[in-house]
């Protein structure tokens, strides 16, 4: 088929599969009050008591006299009618929107419309991301190469596994190997296809270990400290059950992770001395004697440093919860069966407790503020306490890796909620690469998407995902911790707070396909990458609106945050009602530039009016006459900040306690 025929076919498909509809106007003089995205069509436009209200295939739009609310439908958790005339909209990112109507009948009609629109889809293709992509293909049919380049994530994301193994410096000759045992996801449906394990562990052993771990999520290595050689591995809980089952292959694999770290470090010293390496790339088994013999040429063999370091098994749960899991076939490692290992229980709450805490936080943030009881009420939600414990868990991993040179194995129950929180946060603290925009994208793709965090269930936008017990803001909680780190280390992150706020919104919005489905296998089976746009096409490094102007690549290599609750602050830009969730205009939200325009120069539209860091107003006052009531990403400020960057760094570098106000500007 020639190119012209292919383009016409795409046009037919976009129009037929996602046809446009004419809006229902409740009054003749009303019109669509916002520019529509590609593939978006407005369904209803009406007049509330003091506002214009509209609903499209993608968003709820309410234009009040002095403010504007623009919220993606999939970001809405529930809708109810209160006091007969008030529409009460609760969002998944902690916001609550209220709209007053003149009549009870009109309020009920809009309640009915919204209730139907926010219901989880019966078919994945009902989500707006598919229509958005299909119509973009149509609109930009003549610029396919540019369209594809801007729609997809960069090569740093698509080639992440190979690049990361090389970047972290794994010794692939002596210590480690990449196994393809999960090719086509035949062993574990929630794991990626390529996995890193000790070189002498065979695929047959891995199969036995998988049978002993929850959901067959066997220990796989995901990070190597480039200075100490210590690694981080992750997995699901062992299936010990009440019977106290053991698995020799599992015990061997866990010990081999520590041994491989020692081989890795030792072989590098040998290579520096000109000695040979041996190849275990085919998974050949190695005995303890071979392991010891492999290091006999080193003059440091007799020293304790050459022996495998004691491996830290970090169980995110409490000991009581781990033991209770034995009743359901789970459990934890018994130290007697895992020599040279230490098991530490962190006592982190499960998804049900986190969900309850978040609901309490949302209730607090949407009530009339009571200054006298605000802090005690915030403490009562336990949200900051949960953040504190997560930060402490990550810091424990950091100290084990960076200070004690110890390998760490992290797991919770299933290994897809608390485990990625700890592992991803640890990597962010340990490695400056993950604090760049590109590196952060790789981090999210690797630890959250590749290793099977259940975004569809946790966010509630999967097919028929009606089970409220499966919903929990796990990823949002982790992003909140990243925000806390931004506050404490304002010069260490290439991206700003607006980047994180936008990522929160698009985790739920379903404008992009990045966070659809529960695993990489599901996304491949449904051809998500080919049929939707990537969120990284918006949050790309070239988009200057998301850059932190205070970023310095020479800031601290390893971050050691203060984790105490009193040093943490409520993420007001994300949670408080006066920064309502917004949807930017067509030009700013779509990753496709206006034909003939420079992609970097596209406006970002209605970003949340937030500051990059809480203490910027103080710094601006000290650094010059910069307007304090402007967000950090405003283009008019960026040029001035470039001139004042050094003085700003000095003013802001006073630490986490040097912050200014928590006030928020404007409404979303």
Task: Put the structure in a nutshell.
This protein is of the alpha/beta class. It has helices at residues 3-17, 104-117, 128-139, 144-151, 155-158, 160-168, 203-210, 248-272, 288-293, 319-324, 351-366, 374-381, 383-402, 418-430, 437-450, 455-459, 474-488, 497-509, 520-525, 528-531, 572-575, 586-589, 616-623, 635-652, and strands spanning 24-25, 42-47, 51-56, 59-64, 68-72, 76-82, 86-91, 96-100, 176-179, 195-198, 220-224, 231-234, 311-315, 341-345, 408-411.
What is this structure's SSE topology?
Elements: H1 3-17, E1 24-25, E2 42-47, E3 51-56, E4 59-64, E5 68-72, E6 76-82, E7 86-91, E8 96-100, H2 104-117, H3 128-139, H4 144-151, H5 155-158, H6 160-168, E9 176-179, E10 195-198, H7 203-210, E11 220-224, E12 231-234, H8 248-272, H9 288-293, E13 311-315, H10 319-324, E14 341-345, H11 351-366, H12 374-381, H13 383-402, E15 408-411, H14 418-430, H15 437-450, H16 455-459, H17 474-488, H18 497-509, H19 520-525, H20 528-531, H21 572-575, H22 586-589, H23 616-623, H24 635-652
Parallel strand pairs: 1-2, 12-15, 13-14, 13-15
Antiparallel strand pairs: 2-3, 3-4, 4-5, 6-7, 7-8, 9-10, 11-12
Helix pairs in contact: 1-3, 11-12, 13-14, 13-17, 14-15, 14-17, 17-18, 23-24
């Amino acid at each position: 088929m020639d190119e012209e025929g292919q383009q016409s076919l795409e046009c037919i498909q976009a129009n037929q599969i996602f046809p446009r509809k004419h809006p229902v106007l409740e009054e003749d003089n009303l019109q669509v009050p916002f520019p529509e995205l590609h593939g978006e069509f407005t369904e209803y436009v009406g007049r509330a008591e003091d506002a214009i209200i509209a609903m499209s295939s993608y968003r709820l739009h309410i234009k009040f006299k002095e403010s504007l609310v623009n919220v993606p439908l999939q970001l809405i958790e529930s809708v109810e009618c209160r006091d007969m005339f008030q529409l009460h909209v609760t969002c998944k990112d902690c916001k609550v929107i209220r709209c007053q109507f003149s009549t009870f009948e009109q309020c009920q009609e809009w309640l009915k419309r919204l209730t139907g629109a926010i219901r989880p889809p019966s078919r994945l293709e009902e989500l707006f991301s598919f229509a958005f992509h299909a119509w973009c293909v149509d609109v930009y049919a003549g610029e396919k190469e540019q369209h594809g380049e801007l729609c997809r994530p960069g090569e740093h994301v698509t080639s992440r596994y190979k690049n990361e193994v090389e970047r972290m410096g794994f010794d692939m000759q002596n210590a480690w190997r990449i196994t393809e045992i999960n090719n086509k996801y035949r062993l574990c449906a929630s794991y990626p296809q390529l996995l890193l394990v000790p070189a002498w562990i065979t695929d047959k052993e891995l199969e036995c270990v998988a049978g002993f771990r929850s959901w067959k999520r066997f220990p796989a290595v995901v990070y190597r400290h480039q200075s100490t050689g210590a690694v981080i591995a992750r997995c699901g809980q062992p299936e010990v059950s009440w019977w106290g089952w053991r698995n020799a292959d599992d015990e061997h694999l866990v010990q081999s992770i520590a041994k491989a770290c020692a081989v890795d470090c030792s072989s590098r010293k040998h290579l520096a001395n000109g000695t040979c390496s041996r190849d275990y790339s085919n998974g050949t088994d190695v005995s303890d004697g071979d392991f010891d013999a492999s290091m006999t040429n080193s003059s440091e063999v007799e020293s304790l440093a050459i022996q495998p370091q004691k491996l830290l098994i970090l169980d995110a749960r409490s000991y009581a919860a781990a033991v209770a899991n034995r009743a359901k076939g789970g459990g934890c490692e018994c130290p007697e069966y895992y020599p040279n290992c230490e098991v530490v229980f962190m006592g982190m709450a499960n998804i049900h407790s986190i969900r309850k805490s978040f609901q309490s936080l949302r209730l607090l943030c949407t009530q009339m503020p009571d200054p006298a009881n605000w802090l005690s009420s915030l403490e009562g939600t336990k949200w900051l306490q949960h953040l504190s414990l997560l930060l402490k868990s990550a810091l424990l991993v950091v100290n084990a890796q960076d200070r004690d040179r110890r390998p760490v194995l992290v797991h919770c129950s299933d290994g897809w909620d608390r485990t990625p929180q700890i592992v991803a946060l640890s990597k962010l603290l340990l490695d400056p690469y993950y604090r760049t925009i590109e590196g952060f994208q790789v981090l999210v793709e690797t630890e959250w998407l590749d290793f099977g965090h259940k975004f569809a269930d946790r966010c509630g936008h999967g097919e028929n995902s009606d089970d409220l017990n499966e919903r929990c803001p796990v990823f949002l909680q982790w992003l909140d911790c990243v925000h806390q780190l931004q506050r404490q280390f304002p010069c260490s992150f290439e991206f700003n707070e607006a980047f994180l706020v936008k990522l929160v919104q698009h985790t739920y919005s379903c404008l992009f396909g990045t966070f659809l489905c529960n695993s990489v296998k599901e996304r491949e089976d449904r051809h998500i990458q080919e049929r939707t746009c990537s969120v990284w096409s918006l949050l790309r490094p070239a988009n200057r609106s998301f850059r932190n102007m205070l970023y310095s690549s020479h800031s601290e290599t390893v971050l050691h945050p203060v984790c105490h609750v009193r040093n943490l602050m409520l993420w007001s830009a994300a949670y408080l009602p006066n920064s309502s969730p917004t949807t930017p205009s067509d030009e700013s939200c779509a990753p496709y530039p206006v034909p003939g325009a420079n992609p970097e120069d596209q406006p970002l539209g209605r970003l949340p009016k937030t500051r990059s860091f809480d203490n910027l107003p103080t710094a601006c006052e000290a650094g010059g006459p910069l307007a304090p009531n402007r967000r950090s990403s405003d283009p008019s400020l960026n040029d001035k900040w470039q001139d004042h960057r050094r003085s700003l760094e000095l003013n802001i570098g006073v630490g986490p306690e040097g912050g200014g106000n928590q006030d928020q500007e404007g409404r979303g």
